[in-house]
Amino acid sequence: MLEGRVATWSNLLSVLRILMAPAIAVALYYERITGDIWYCKFAVAVYLVVAVSDFIDGILARLLHQVSRLGQFLDPIADKCVILIVAVTLYYFRQFPLWMIVLIIIRDMLHVIAGFYLFYAHDIQVRPSIAGKCMVVIMGLCGLIFIVNPAYTFAGYTLQQISLLLVVVFMVVSSISNWRIYSKFYFTGKR
Length: 191
Fold this sequence. Notes:
This protein has helices at about 10-35, 40-65, 70-95, 100-120, 130-150, 160-190, and strands at about 155, 155-160. With about 190 residues, the protein is mostly helical. The chain has one domain: CDP-alcohol phosphotransferase transmembrane (TM) domain (Four Helix Bundle (Hemerythrin (Met), subunit A)), CATH 1.20.120.1760.
């Protein structure tokens, strides 16, 4: 079912994203034990490379005519792995709330189950919605804010709290959007 080329540049970037994410945890760990801000800067640099590679891999696949079903499957799985690795890292080193990690896990599990079912039972591959792409961008900004850990407040709320609120709003909107897409495929069978 996952026909097409396996060894493509975009697939390599997806795998590299997953492998690079733990470097953020290592950097923040060393920042905590040494107090050296250089490690935070390194974590930000790795985070930005991971984020840019997520943006580039799809473009690269289209430019090099290497779009494959494996790549279309691997990219969102890599996104979910990276988000979870970074969220758990931020929980340990930057007071990222546990409730948000639980919310991310529940949402992603439901989406993966629905996506697997449609893919294997009906040979339907669901493409990400615009709302879902926006949510990933907002999650990325939220992660960056927690890594940098600025002390700014707006109307009595920290930048971290505001970014968490935006993630929740976009998570709800994208979940509703995805549910509509999934239910359309499931109930009508139309692609």
